């Protein structure tokens, strides 16, 4: 009995990459909201925003 070997295409990899990127962006925004809730410290909030911005190529 032979099992059909499924190949991963570049389109599949792109979809996975895009999904993971969206998850990462969501987590970064959640971290920013949490920093805002935990502290009224503008420096901490600015640092969180800078980390989010630097993540982008």
Automatic annotation (TrEMBL):
UniProt name for this protein: Uncharacterized protein
Instruction: Give the species this sequence originates from.
Output: Paenibacillus algorifonticola
